[in-house]
Write a structure and sequence with these properties.
Elements (H helix, E strand, L loop, with lengths): L6 H8 L3 H9 L7 E2 L5 E2 L2 H15 L4 H13 L4 H43 L1
Antiparallel strand pairs: 1-2
């Protein structure tokens, strides 16, 4: 069944604000959303899937400008698939590097916890 959600329902479901949804549509990240006879936006399953993908790109650090570029490539058609794959591979590399940095930072935190735990044990 194809969903037919209002902007409020979509905001609740996706975790994005109504303002962000409107902004994403305004800058072309979300294609023009279908409208009800009263002019209110109605989001379908395809829209929700695309929004979830955009959230993934954003939460993994892709700049909005690159997200717009990717969106334009997607809208241009299948002949841009190689470019899209290249963009996603490059982004994947950035995400992997960030994960590596976070893992190193986590190890530092872990070591500090152990250091404090040893201090506590020595005092007891």
């Amino acid at each position: 069944m194809d969903t037919n959600l209002t902007i409020q329902q979509t905001a609740s479901r996706t975790g994005l604000s109504e303002h962000t949804l409107r902004y994403y549509e305004k800058i072309g990240l979300i294609p023009p959303v279908e409208r009800a006879p009263n002019g209110h936006r109605r989001y379908n399953d395809t829209d929700l899937g695309w929004i979830d993908f955009l959230k993934c790109l954003r939460s993994t650090g892709m700049p909005v400008a690159q997200m717009i570029e990717f969106t334009h490539l997607t809208q241009a058609g299948e002949h841009t698939i190689q470019e899209r794959v290249a963009m996603l591979k490059k982004h994947r590399g950035c995400v992997r590097r960030e994960i590596a940095v976070l893992e190193k930072d986590l190890e530092v935190i872990h070591n500090k916890i152990n250091w404090y735990a040893n201090m506590i044990e020595e005092e007891a």
